[in-house]
Here is the input.
Amino acid sequence: MQRRVHIIVTGRVQGVNYRASTRDKAVALGIAGWVRNKMDGSVEITAEGDKFSVNTLINWCESGSRWASVEGLKVADETPKGDLIGFVIRRDE
Here is the structure.
C-alpha cells in the first residue's frame, strides 16, 4: 500500500544538514519526493512510497539530522500519485 505525505518541520532545521540527511534517508528507504527550505525557517517535504517506509521517514523527521533541533512536525496525507521520481533537494522557497 502506497502513502504520500506533505511534511512541515519546524525548529533549528536549516543550516544543520537536515535536507541532505532527509534525502539520504529517503533514498535508503526507496521513497520518492523532495525536500526544501522555506522562507520562514522551516523545512518542507513531500514523500511517497510504501506505507512502512514513509512511516519510517516520518519517525526519522522527528529528530532529523545530527545537529537539528526539531520543535514541530506537521504531517498531512495526500493522495498517492506515482508522479515522483527519485528524491531531490529543491531550491529554497
